[in-house]
Amino acid sequence: MTAHAHPHAKAAVPTVDVHAHVLIPEIEALVEGAPGLAEARTLDARRNGPTALAVSGPMVRDRLPRLTDPAVRLAAMDAQGVDIQLVSPSPSHYHYWADEETAEKVYRTANEATAAHCSAAPDRLRGLGLVPLQHPDRTVEALDHALAQGLAGVEISSHAPGRELSDPAYEPLWSRAGETGAVVFLHPFGCTLDERLDRWYLSNTVGQPAENAVALSHLIFSGVLDRHPGLKVLAAHGGGYLPTHVGRSDHAWSTRSDAGASCARPPSSYLRRLYFDSLVHDPHILRELVRVAGGDRVLLGSDFPFDMGTEDPVGALRAARLPAADFEAVRGGNAAALLRKD
Questions:
Q1: pLDDT in tens, 261-317
Q2: Which of 28, 59, 188, 231 is the most exposed place for a label (fewest CB within 10 A)?
Q3: For residue 244, what is the DSSP state?
Q4: Does domain 16-338 sit in CATH 3.20.20.140?
Q5: Whole-prediction pTM value?
Q6: Confidence band, pLDDT 50/70/90 cuts, at residue 342
Q7: What PANTHER family does the annotation carry (predicted)?
Q8: Considering just the CA atoms, what is the radius of gyration of the chain in Å?
Q9: Residue 201 CB: number of other CB atoms within 10 A?
Q10: d(CA 149, CA 111)
Q11: Rounded distance, CA 151 to CA 129, Å?
Q12: Cα dihedral value 64, 146, 131, 153, nearest 10
């Protein structure tokens, strides 16, 4: 039974999936032949390994209609009982290798195409744009451009070449995101452990949660979250390894002067300042995430429509056997509050 078939669907808070992607062919067309693309593809191939690339190609092709056609997306959402999706560009569109001129074309195309995709069903689709992390001084204008398209915020990776999210160059971005109420969706793409993860798809299964943990640790330990209390960071993949191992961070913070030098409180306390999607593939880990971050900080996420996501996000949430209030909050209440238009 879909959410729409439910007799009380109108009165209930809608079911909201905050982790869903759109593929934008125009972006790949505009970067084709650009200096740096071949090198970036070579690095990507080295990090993932040949077997992973051989599996991923057909997987993405099989999902192209769901990634590009709003009607196909909406039908799939109906089948899943999902009322609203927060749609972000495929992370393959980051192109953080690009020069300034190309990077501007990428973010403008991403923002406009995502907004156009969502405009097919504005009551059911909200969107996120992109900012060029490799050009920190262009990130605020890119965020403003995304918001001007009616998007809810932007999606970023865990780092840019040579820059961590703790880099002072990003302070204007965090300030602007905080004052506008923009959502910053932290979704890693590419792990710097490189060919250590080039077999068995470790580049994703180990790489993504590791990158999440590193990026969130940079935001916490550097004091970014102290300086920008209004910042709304939503971490994909349940925040990766950090929420379940944050005790180690707290221990370092309280024991070592270098670890505790730049943030005001124990690292675990900042989990209640962040938002996390529910995509952890284990009901016990999801329960733990809700325990450490709070029932008001976890939001339903599926990674629609990729194979590392879940076909049944509500079922995966139900399997965690949360208290009813937490279940309803994660299913849609928290997203409704986070995405509320002023």
A1: 999 999 999 999 999 999 999 999 999 999 999 999 999 999 999 999 999 999 999
A2: 59
A3: G
A4: yes
A5: 0.95
A6: very low
A7: 2-AMINO-3-CARBOXYLMUCONATE-6-SEMIALDEHYDE DECARBOXYLASE, ISO-OROTATE DECARBOXYLASE (EUROFUNG)
A8: 19
A9: 18
A10: 7
A11: 7
A12: -90
